[in-house]
Predict the 3D structure of the following.
Amino acid sequence: MADDNEVLMRVDNLSLHAGGRELQHSLSFDVRAGEVLAIVGASGCGKSTLLRHMIGLQAPRTGTVTWVAGGKARDVHGDDPPRREIGVAFQAGALWSSMTVGENLMLPLELYTALDEAQREAQARAKLALAGLPDAATFDAEPAALSGGMRKRAAIARALMLDPPLLCLDEPSAGLDPLTSARLDDLIQHLKHELGTAIVLVTHELESLFAVADRVLFLDVQARTATALGPPADLRDQGPEPVREFLTRGRYRPHPTAPRAPQEEAA
Ligand SMILES: Nc1ncnc2c1ncn2[C@@H]1O[C@H](COP(=O)(O)OP(=O)(O)O)[C@@H](O)[C@H]1O
Ligand SMILES: [Mg+2]
């Protein structure tokens, strides 16, 4: 079981930019072993951009992201990035359509391990079952043949193939019906408890947040920095006004004199 106090990743004084514009500045926080950390904030505030910085896809202009688990500090953007340690299932990071689900899952094992084919297949089937897709037919299916909810689960299964201590999910429930979405919350809980995987989760959904998050990081779109970090119930009861508003009603009330929040472009 993960040590609750162990820090996996340290984000220090990070700023986020897109299209020449500063989205966020002075972001400093840790990701702890085994926790579910939810990143919330108005559409366009930079949540997905933050995740891209955390997994090493986008290099920071200011600040650092450091993998610190295991006692050796490794810059996520340096020469020895923690690729195997971070699993990613993003909206756009879908499965390869030219391969079966099983082939998709076995690929990371081919790239990063010395397991033989029978072992790779056994692992892939085990991860599908863990992600709630035990049906043998799923293994041989083309991703296009799966429902949206099943594809999300398969993408999560793939992200878990190398047993990463950290899993990053960007709005896993987006586009799913409420029941499928609630089942995905159960899966996140299950992963946390069964595997001790830390999960960084971008979400808009309050129910999901209160069900699964140990801590919430609130990115304020107007202040352009994180204005709250803590357990969801604490922030709802004692957090700054915009955070309480969001955690109570699931919406944001921009200050009347402040500029409007930029809207995220439709995918
Ligand atoms: N490559 C890019 N070039 C220009 N603007 C971008 C780029 N990527 C994101 N943006 C803009 O940056 C803002 C933040 O994007 P994003 O991180 O996706 O926000 P969120 O996930 O919080 O909704 C949005 O206004 C988006 O349109
Ligand atoms: Mg986003």
Q: What stands out?
A: The pocket of adenosine-5'-diphosphate (ligand 1) is lined by residues 18-19, 23, 41, 43-49, 262, 264-265 (CB under 6 Å). The radius of gyration is 18 Å. The chain has two domains: 1-85+166-172+198-251, 88-163.
